[in-house]
Amino acid sequence: MDVKFPIGQLQVPDNVKAEHIQEWLGKIGTYTTRLREAVDSLDEEQLGKKYREGSWTVRQLVHHIADSQLNMYQRLKLALTDDNPTVPAFDQEKWAELPDNSLPVESSIRILEGLNERIVALGQHVADEQLDRVFTHETNGEISVATKLAKLCWHEEHHLEHIKIALAN
């Protein structure tokens, strides 16, 4: 198994259908319950574990998931409302070092609870013709609504697996 990409890299079907969207939204909708199962009873030592040398700690991963999902949600909304907006990148490594990352992970789980509820509610109303709407990421180029919905799901699952690997080490 590649511990950097334990569930594989993001794969988006060429022709995204309603079934794909529903599958992704279903996982997003249950994510915080599954994340809580993994991290709720952890002590400080366990929150400091890493899934590989040089990786983020479990605590940093939980905070990163919330930070990144916030950014992706905003980009999704911009793609749905604006005509190909350009969005900035964020330096996730620098964000992971900011002092709010020392807070209990519960603060980020609460963010994710509300955010995922909104992502699911929005995603359930994305029409087929909106799936091809795009935004332009300043470093990654054009990204479609369909790809962003897939990544919102993949990103959470990807890091949940990192957390499980860290805790098994």
UniProtKB/TrEMBL annotation:
One of its GO terms (molecular function) is hydrolase activity. The keyword Hydrolase applies. InterPro entries: DinB-like (IPR024775), DinB/YfiT-like (IPR034660). Keywords: Hydrolase. Residues 33-163 form the DinB-like domain. This is Metal-dependent hydrolase.
